[in-house]
Structures are given as structure tokens and as C-alpha cells.
Amino acid sequence: MPATASPAPAALPRTIAPPTGPLGVVHERLPWRHTFISLTVPNFRMFTAAHFVAVVALWMQRIAQDWLVLELTGSVTAVGVTVALQFTPVLLLGPWGGLFADRFSKRRLLQVCAIGAGTCAAALGALTLTGALAVWNVYAIALVLGLVTVLDQPARQVFVNELVGPTYLRNAISVNSTTFQLGALIGPAVAGWLLTAVGGGWAFVVNAFACCVTAVMLSLLRRDELVVATPTPASRGMLREAVAYAWAKPTIRWPWVMAGVVSLFAMSLPVLLAAYADHVFSVGAGGYGLLNTMVAVGALSGAIASARRVRLRLRTVVLGAGLYGAMLAVAAFAPSMPLFCALVAVSGFCALTFLTSANQLVQTSANMGIRGRVMSLYTMVLIGGQALGGPMLGWLAEHLGAHAAMLVSGSVPALAAGVLALSLRRRVVA
């Protein structure tokens, strides 16, 4: 029997998105060749290419930054402080970033953020290559990067819908996650090589260049093909409205709660990996890059799997968070580097199952007119929790040991997911 060709994907709507109402996302399983169907949209394809370059460079900078702080201070706690300074602005100011995303052009906001991040990276590169870098320089620049992130994250989250329209939003979120994890797979390995070969300064220079590429790409997008929502007019109580709206919806409230627990205890994993690379396995900067790469290998697999998922349920979010915590807790007892690498790779898969499912569920549950604020609240919890979790895990690793810190990092999210799963089950039964 001759094979029949699969029908071409339906044309995407290029209309103004309604401010309210449910999103018409695709629920049927796509053929394998359409796993990344959102890339058929030229604007999203261009955005994804530039995003991939930027993510590789961003991970190079993060690995180089963390390792240089460890070299300058000899303290894992200092690495955690760097993470805290970078994420504290999101914790304190995140909702205001959402207000900007709802009221102004997301494309312009992202351009401004790319220029700001590139300036920070160039400053770090210049200080490192001239031998003038001090730990306070890293702290200060990390804080400025945090302020950039306040505007960047909610605008970036909502801009995906403007690029592809509501039909393939879930797929585009998965593609974004895949791109991020592919960059996280390559970036740490390149950073590890640069650290041992020529020093970390060049990682910062590469990131500055990548930020310039992003700013240029955003100016080249076809603006007439963007699915632009009507800007939300200013009014009193806009943040209170967003909080009440999010808390009233279980599909936003519970991913929000789990994101808070996971981000506080388990999202600052690079801090613990630095402790394992330096104090447990003694594998140096190259080994630290390898450990981050193994996490990204698993996460990349999880991102691809999420693009194939037909149904999106709250139970997937809870299960992903619970398994992520469980894998980290088991990894705490790993007696060898190869077994530890395997376990953190599995944890990366579980982490991306949680993160992608939670992101998709929150975005598709929020109406367009309020989505910027809702996503800023979600981002505030997810990223801002790391501002507290980074120093906490660094302190635990330094005073109780890397094994105990890893055990705490995994056990608390696993326990929280278990309690939430039982609670939701009882409500369904009742």
C-alpha cells in the first residue's frame, strides 16, 4: 500500500490576539517531522537562531563567572552570593517588569535588555582580561544583570505568543526550552575548555557579542507578521488584580507554589555542582563544566519529550517536580563521578519536564490582557527563589558538606510534591 503524505500544517493566524478568552492550542499528536512545527514561522525561526547563540554564550559566562568567584574567594558561599545578587531584583521588582510587558512593546523591551546585558558582559570581559577583576566587581555586575532580567523575563515569555500566535504556543515554549538546553549543553563544555586554555575573560567577550546579535535580530523581525495584543491601559491595582487572578486558578496557583519550592531548594544546582567538582571529586573547572553539561543532556531530552506531549495536566507538573527532587536526593549518595553524572542527567530530564509543563500550563491558563503580569509573578517566584536558595545551598555545602546540601536540595521538593499530590487526589475523590 503506497504511503500517503501527511497534510501540511495549517496556516497560522496573523491577526490581533484577543485580550481575553482561552487559547486555541493544538492537542493532537504531531508527526515526528512536525515536532518543532513552530519553527515554520519565519519570525520565530529567526528569534530561535539568535536565542541559541545567546544561550550558549550566557552559559559560558555563568560557568566562567561562578568558577572565577570560587578562585578569587575559595568560598562556595561566595558563589551563592553571586547567584543571589543576580536574582534578588527579580524577587523584589518582578511584578513591575510584568506591568511593562503588558503595557509596552515586548520587542523594544527585549532590545533594551540585550544592550544592557551586553554592556555588563563587556565590562566583565575587560576587567578579567586586564587582570583587574575583583570579587566586588562580579557582585556589582551581577546585580545590574538582575535589574535587566526584571524586564527581560516577562517580556520574553509573552513575546513567544506574538511570534507564533496562540495555535502553536505550547510547541513554541517547548522549542524555546529545547534551544535553551541545547545551549546549556554546549556552553558549559566550551566554558570549561576556555577556563583551562585561555582563561574566563573570553567567555564574557563572547557573551557581549551574542547580546549584540540578539539586538540586531529583534530589529529584523517582520513586524507585520507579529500577533500583537492590544496594550493594557494603565489603571490602579493592576498588580493586585494579577495576584488575585493567578491565585483563583488552580492551574496557575499550584505551578506557582511548586515553582517556589523547587527554585528555593533545587534551582541553584550549579552552586552544588561547583562544590562537588572542587571538594568531592576534585575535577577542576573542566569537571565543573562536564557536570553542568550532563544536567543539560538530560534537560534537552526532557525538552524534546515535552514537545511531543499531547495533553497538559497539573499532575505532570507535580510529578516532574517530585522526580527532580528525588533524583537529586539519590545523587547525594553517589559514590563515583560516573554514577553522579548519570543521576544528574536524569534529574535534568525531570527538571525540564516540570519547568516546561509549568510554563505551558500557566501561559495557556492566563488571558492575554493579564499574561505579562501573571508570567512576571511566576518568574519572580521561579528566579527570585534562587536569590535565597543560592546562598543557602552554598552555606550548607560549606558547613555541612556537599552531600548533605544535595540531600536537602532534593528531599524538600520531593516531599512538597508528594504532599500536594495527596491533597489534589483527596479533593478529586471528595
UniProtKB/TrEMBL annotation:
Membrane-protein topology: Multi-pass membrane protein
GO molecular function term, any single one: transmembrane transporter activity
Listed transmembrane segments: 36-60, 72-97, 109-127, 133-151, 172-195, 201-221, 256-277, 283-305, 317-336, 342-362, 374-396, 402-424
Classification via SUPFAM superfamilies: MFS general substrate transporter
Name assigned to this protein: MFS transporter
Source organism phylogeny: Bacteria, Bacillati, Actinomycetota, Actinomycetes, Micrococcales
Pfam families for the chain: MFS_3 (PF05977)
InterPro entries: MFS_dom (IPR020846), MFS_trans_sf (IPR036259), TM_effector (IPR010290)
Species of provenance: Sinomonas puerhi
Annotated compartments: Cell membrane
Keywords of this entry: Cell membrane, Membrane, Transmembrane, Transmembrane helix, Transport
Main location: membrane
The Major facilitator superfamily (MFS) profile domain, residue ranges: 38-428
Origin: domain of life: Bacteria
Gene Ontology CC terms: plasma membrane
